[in-house]
Amino acid sequence: xxxxxxxxxxxxxxxxxxxxxxxxxxxxxxxxxxxxxxxxxxxxxxxxxxx
Length: 51
Hints:
With about 50 residues, the protein is mostly helical. It is about 70% helix and about 0% strand. The chain contains two helices and no strands. Helix 1 (about 1-15) runs antiparallel to helix 2. The two termini are about 15 Å apart.
C-alpha cells in the first residue's frame, strides 16, 4: 500500500493531477499506520497474523 501510494503520488505530482496526489498521500498514511500497528503486535481487523 505504501509503494502504491508513492507511485500514485509521483505520477500525480509529475502529471500535475491533484486527485492522484491526494489519493497517493492517503494511501501512504494508511499504509504507515497499518505498518506501525502490525509492528507493535496489535491485532488489526481482529487478526494478529495475515498469512
